[in-house]
Specification:
This protein folds into two domains: 1-57; 75-147. Helices cover 78% and strands 0% of the residues. It contains seven helices and no strands. The radius of gyration is 21 Å and the shape is elongated.
Amino acid sequence: MDNEFRSNTKANTKIAGKMADEFESIDRLFAQAVQHHRYGELSKAEALYQAILKREPNHLAAMKKYGVLSFQWNDFLLAEKMFEQVYEMGQFDEQLSVNLVMSKIKLDKAAEALPVIHAILRHNPESKAAIALSERLQMPLPDLESC
């Protein structure tokens, strides 16, 4: 029984080590992608973001950055898709929400942008970005109690 326990422990340690290597390599890939993105090497950054998302489809940081890159390339549909996926996954992020609104505006989806602006204002009633976006859409600021 003692040998069986040791064998299982070694196997579990080996599996945990392999998983750590995979996460480390994803972190390394992400760092490289961000560096390429920062230096304007957008094709290299895109390839790395795609590789990360292929291995870890819900990598929030990669989706955000890939959305930004897509927006820079005027691929507003892909930018919207990336931002929307992250937005729907959870915690509020004002910059992400602004990016999602901007993508929707570029796609002439003002009606879809408005609820996101409302969400920004619920979290931060003083948000200069949300106020400016509301003005850009020529829509009155909402009554926050009705949001």
